[in-house]
Specification:
globular
């Protein structure tokens, strides 16, 4: 019984560490993420991401999230999207991106 409770407590701890989330915002490059005028600029986002600046998600309130796998979001650079995945600290493990 005690072993079962310990396993349950351990599982609960891990489930709180990475929360499932649906986050809305723009996928843009990290260098331009603080510039509100760059949100929605597909051309600039693609150019800067190809130039080496990592893609990030910027929410309407200015919060910036990193992606664990850049390849999953590159087709949506510069666009407003909903990202579904697991959130841990400021990094999203992407499950799905929809426009």
């Amino acid at each position: 019984m005690k072993k079962s409770l310990n396993l349950l407590a351990l599982a609960a701890t891990f489930s709180f560490g990475a929360m499932a989330a649906d986050l809305n915002g723009y996928i843009i490059d990290q260098n331009c993420s603080s510039k509100a005028a760059m949100r929605g600029n597909v051309e600039c986002a693609n150019k800067c991401i190809k130039g080496g600046s990592p893609a990030v998600l910027v929410t309407d309130d200015g919060k910036i999230y990193k992606f664990d796998d850049q390849a999953k979001v590159l087709d949506h650079a510069g666009k407003k999207v909903t990202v579904t995945g697991r959130l841990k600290d400021d990094t999203i493990t992407v499950a799905k991106v929809s426009e």
